[in-house]
Amino acid sequence: MESRERVPAAGAGGGTSSRGGGAEPKPRRTAVDLAALPGFLAASALVAWLGSQATISNVTGWYATADKAPWSPPNWLFGPVWTVLYTAMAVAAWLVWRSRSPNRRTALTVYGVQLGLNLAWTPVFFGLYPVWGSAALWLALGIIIALALAVAATVLLFGPIRRTAGLLMLPYLSWIVFAASLNLWAAVNN
C-alpha cells in the first residue's frame, strides 16, 4: 500500500489533504499553452495593423514634409523595428499568462492598458495633425508619456513573474522613450 504524507490543508478548517495543501493549481496542458501563443501574437498584430492604417496615408502626407528630429531614423526602419517589438511583447505576455503567479492577472491588465495606449497614440499623432495641427502632437506626447509609464510598469510586473518576459519588454520601453523624444521634437517644431 502506498504511503501518503498528510499535510494540513490551506484554509479555515484545519483539515488535511493528501495533495500537500491543495493550493497549487493544476498546470496547463502544453497543447493549451501552445495554442494560446498565436492568440497573443494575433492581438499584437491587430494593434500593429490598426496603427498602420493611420500611418500609411500620413507618412507620405504631412509627415513627409514635417520638421523631424535630427536623430529620426529613416521611415523604412520603423516597420521592421515594430515587427520585432510586437512579437517580443506578445511572447512576453504569453510567458506571463502561462505562469501560475497570483500576480499575473494584474500584470496582464497593465499590459492590456499599455497596448491600448499604444493603439491610441498612432492615430492621434499621424491622423489628427492635419485637423488639429500641433495640438494633436502635444496630445500625442501626453499619450506616449503615459504609454512609457505603462510599459515601465509592465516591465516591473512581468520581471518577478518571468524574468525573460520582463527582459523581452525592455527594447520596447527603450523604443517608446526614443519615440517620445521624436514626438517632443515634432510638437515643438511643427
Automatic annotation (TrEMBL):
<comment type="similarity">
    <text>Belongs to the TspO/BZRP family.</text>
</comment>
<feature type="transmembrane region" description="Helical">
    <location>
        <begin position="76"/>
        <end position="96"/>
    </location>
</feature>
<dbReference type="GO" id="GO:0033013">
    <property type="term" value="P:tetrapyrrole metabolic process"/>
</dbReference>
<feature type="transmembrane region" description="Helical">
    <location>
        <begin position="170"/>
        <end position="188"/>
    </location>
</feature>
<feature type="region of interest" description="Disordered">
    <location>
        <begin position="1"/>
        <end position="27"/>
    </location>
</feature>
<feature type="compositionally biased region" description="Gly residues">
    <location>
        <begin position="11"/>
        <end position="23"/>
    </location>
</feature>
<keyword id="KW-0472">Membrane</keyword>
<protein>
    <recommendedName>
        <fullName>TspO/MBR family protein</fullName>
    </recommendedName>
</protein>
<keyword id="KW-1133">Transmembrane helix</keyword>
<dbReference type="GO" id="GO:0016020">
    <property type="term" value="C:membrane"/>
</dbReference>
<dbReference type="InterPro" id="IPR004307">
    <property type="entry name" value="TspO_MBR"/>
</dbReference>
<dbReference type="InterPro" id="IPR038330">
    <property type="entry name" value="TspO/MBR-related_sf"/>
</dbReference>
<feature type="transmembrane region" description="Helical">
    <location>
        <begin position="108"/>
        <end position="129"/>
    </location>
</feature>
<dbReference type="Pfam" id="PF03073">
    <property type="entry name" value="TspO_MBR"/>
</dbReference>
<feature type="transmembrane region" description="Helical">
    <location>
        <begin position="135"/>
        <end position="158"/>
    </location>
</feature>
<keyword id="KW-0812">Transmembrane</keyword>
<feature type="transmembrane region" description="Helical">
    <location>
        <begin position="34"/>
        <end position="56"/>
    </location>
</feature>
